[in-house]
Structures are given as structure tokens and as C-alpha cells.
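Support request, please re-run this one:
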Amino acid sequence: MSTDYIEKAVAMLDRAHPSYRLVDSKRDVAGRIEYTNTPILELSDAYLKKNHVLTPDSDKVIMNSYKVLRTRVLQQMEQNAWSTLAVTSARPDEGKTLTAINLSISMALKLDYTVLLVDLDFRKPSVHKRFGFEPSHGVADCLEGRVRLEQVFVNPGISRLLLLPEPHVQSHTSEILSSAGMEELVDELKSRYRSRIIIFDLPPVLVGDDVLAFSNNVDATLLVVQEGKTTTDDLNRAISLLENKNLIGTVLNRSSETSEFSNYGY
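Re-run finished. Output below.
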């Protein structure tokens, strides 16, 4: 993946206002997901590519880089019978959300899986911004009982992928993430589909205790760092905090090496 691509990928992306339609969702006899009563975003490939979100027509080097990352992550998860993965970074703006999005898409393109991407970065929720839509409700609304999960799910026009967005910044974030309600929500998400991988986009690990507060709800963690920005001290501190949290690897953004994805602990 080119350095230019990574530099653009971690920048704030332009918003758009795609239309969306309502369909129904069910699982057919072959285990495929058909969406019913779930908004499906009608985004063009050109829009997604503009915002550096993977499409079947994405640059082959970029697509293959995410396939390599997908394979490494899935191998670890399959070997350990894991189904939930937290994606975090050491500091803000190191590419964690885009990594979570494109890893989710890459996994969903693999026919064996359905994937749910959950935005739990209550300090700076941005999954919906990357796709360019404004949800009416989010995770916090589910936790407070204002809406049901079915009213928040969104399909971004990609088969076997669902989003659970959060449109609003929240206060007392670690308290929310460590609450009994959050634990119940995660349990419900895990019980819905046996073959589903759930990816949680979490805040950076060094900005507070959010990741540690939520860590008991996930099987493994993936750390995103940025070459030229993440210091050795920050990397060591992040790894130390994630000790015993099944840190399965790191994604190195803006790498000067040929491969954009480096690994630690695979």
C-alpha cells in the first residue's frame, strides 16, 4: 500500500448524504444473510474508493494487503475459537477506524463469515462518517433502552456486513464500556449468528481507560500504530497495557517498508 494512500486514509473524510432503502433480514437455509428491516446504504463504488473504503475494484495491492491482514487475524481467531476482536491504537489519528472498516469488509468478502462492525469509540465516533451517513440512533440509545438493536443496524451495501454505529460523543465513556448493560449487549450480539465475527472500534488505548474497561468483553485485540508518529515509548506503553489481553498483532500505517502491514506477536 502506498504511503500516499495511508496519508489520505487517516485524514478526515468528506461527508456525503447517500440515500438508503429498507429491506428485510433473515438467514436462508445456506446460512447466507438477507437483510430485512435493515437500512441498506446505496453508495457508489466511486464514493467508497474516494473515501479509501475497500470495494471489489480497489487497487490490487491495497486489497491484497488487507487480505494478508485478514488471513493472519482469522488464523489466530479460528485456532482459539474466538469471535470478537477489538481494534485500537496508541494515540488518536493513527488509522484504527479505517483499519477496522477495511478489515471488516475484507472478512465479509470471504464467504465463510458474516461480520458486524461496532463503533464503541464514544470519545470520537466516526465509522458512520467514513461511510458518509448520519444515523438517527446508535449504540448508546440501545443501552438506554430507547431503541432496539434492529433499529440501529445498517448494511453499507456490502453483503454479509452490518454496522452498529454511534453518532454522538458520550461522557463517562469507561463507565459505559464496563457496564452490565454493555456486557449484555455484547452477549446478545455474539448469540445472534454462530459464524459472525464482531469487530469493535475502540478509543486509543493511551487516552484513557476505555480499552481496559471493555477488554473482558472481547477475545482478542489488534493494535494500530503509525510510523513516524507513534513513539517507541507509546508503543511499549500500549503493549504493556494490553498484556494478557490477547494482543494478536499490530498494523503499521505509513510504513516505509514494501508491505504496509507489519506484525507484532503473530
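The mean pLDDT is 83. The first strand starts at residue 20 and ends at 27.
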